[in-house]
């Protein structure tokens, strides 16, 4: 929330770099993938080393549907689910953290490794949002961006 503070909804949805996601699309991706991740965690806890397909936002109908929602709706869902995730994850016994699931690119990973992967993936997108927001905040009045 702090990263996009002061930006209008139009700015958040503006494609700053041609062919790259807007701030809003990055946020929707984080919000949508959070649901996929929760589902994968449940599978890891329930099954013996489930194998997951590669996730792509463009192939996720929820991502496309959520792009039509308001920023407020997306942020509320993201924050609500994150609080639920944090409460549940902090209560996992150590025996759950060593259960495994297989990622298509990274192979067999423990639940702890999946959690680290999730956070690193999220950090990548938060950094992209940070850079896009900075670009928008220093834009010249005519809409041109400073280099």
Task: Supply the helix-strand structural class.
Answer: mainly alpha
Model regions low in confidence, pLDDT < 50 over at least 5 residues = none
The level of helicity is 55-70%
- Under CATH at level 1, the class stands as Mainly Alpha
Mean pLDDT, all residues: 92
CATH superfamily membership, which one?
dinb family like domain
| N to C succession of SSEs | HHHHHEEH
Radius of gyration: 17 Å
Side by side, the strands of the main sheet go: 1-2
In the CATH hierarchy, the third-tier topology is known as Four Helix Bundle (Hemerythrin (Met), subunit A)
The number of strands is 2
Roughly how many Å apart are the termini?
A: 25 Å
Content of β-strand: 5-15%
CATH-defined architecture? Up-down Bundle
Tertiary shape? elongated
Please explain how this structure is put together.
This protein is mainly alpha-helical. The protein has a single domain (9-135), classed as Four Helix Bundle (Hemerythrin (Met), subunit A), CATH 1.20.120.450. The chain contains six helices and two strands, in the order H-H-H-H-H-E-E-H. It has helices at 9-13, 23-46, 61-66, 71-89, 94-97, 111-137, and strands at 100-103, 107-110. A two-stranded antiparallel sheet has the order 1-2. A hairpin with a 3-residue loop joins strand 1 and strand 2. Helix 2 runs antiparallel to helix 6 (111-137). The radius of gyration is 17 Å and the shape is elongated. The model has no long low-confidence stretch (mean pLDDT 92).
């Amino acid at each position: 929330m702090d990263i996009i503070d002061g930006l209008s909804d139009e700015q958040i949805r503006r494609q700053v770099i041609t062919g790259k996601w807007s701030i809003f699309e990055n946020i929707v991706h984080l919000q949508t993938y959070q649901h996929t991740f929760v589902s994968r965690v449940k599978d890891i806890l329930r099954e013996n080393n489930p194998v997951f397909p590669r996730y792509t936002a463009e192939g996720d109908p929820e991502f496309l549907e959520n792009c039509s929602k308001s920023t407020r709706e997306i942020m509320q869902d993201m924050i609500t689910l994150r609080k639920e995730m944090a409460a549940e994850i902090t209560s996992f016994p150590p025996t759950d953290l060593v259960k495994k699931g297989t990622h298509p690119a990274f192979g067999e990973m423990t639940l702890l490794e999946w959690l680290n992967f999730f956070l690193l993936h999220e950090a990548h997108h938060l950094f992209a949002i940070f850079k896009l927001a900075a670009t928008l905040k220093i834009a010249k009045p005519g809409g041109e961006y400073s280099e």
